[in-house]
Amino acid sequence: MNIPSDLKYTKDHEWIKVDGDVATVGITDFAQSELGDIVYVEVESLDETLDREEVFGTVEAVKTVSDLFMPLSGEVIEFNEELESEPEKVNSDPYGDGWMIKIKISNPDEVEELLDDQAYKEIIGA
Predict the structure, then answer these.
(1) How many CB atoms lie within 10 A of CB 6?
(2) Could you tell me which of 41, 82, 46, 6 has the C-alpha nearest to residue 15?
(3) Domain 8-107 has what CATH class?
(4) What are the extents of the domains in the chain?
(5) pTM of the model
(6) Per-residue pLDDT of the chain (126 residues; tens, 9 = 90+)
(7) How many CB atoms lie under 10 A from the CB of residue 83?
């Protein structure tokens, strides 16, 4: 199970890479392995400002559809459009080419409330 130590995590199995006031977000290796083969990623919240824990999109696997939750409050400024034609990148490279959105962070204090790699490992029993 790959859980990079330089990222932040949520209890909803999303990873966050913070770079200044922009956060890149995707789902964790654990999440993609639990979902199975991902066939579709939908993000309809581009250019919208959402609160933390609001739904920003969905990920559809062969067996199930799961909501994607905002890990931080902010504006969705970018969607990884490669996922429209190649959603399987979420399975093959969840922390790289499989990223989902970028957020312009509106409340930097929320970053401190995210989980580090050790706390996330405890949640998933790794």
Answers:
(1) 9
(2) 6
(3) mainly beta
(4) 8-107
(5) 0.96
(6) 899 999 999 999 999 999 999 999 999 999 999 999 999 999 999 999 999 999 999 999 998 999 999 999 999 999 999 999 999 999 999 999 999 999 999 999 999 999 999 999 999 998
(7) 24
The structure tokens 């966050």 sit at 16
Cβ within 8 Å of residue 114, ≥6 positions away: 8, 9, 10, 16, 71, 72
53 vs 72: CA distance, rounded Å: 7
Bridge-based pairing state of the strands 14-19 and 8-9 = antiparallel
- Please report, for residues 9, 29, 41, 79, the alpha-carbon distance to residue 86 in angstroms, rounded to integers and kept in the order given: 24, 17, 9, 13
Q: Which two tokens stand for residue 99?
A: 């990223």
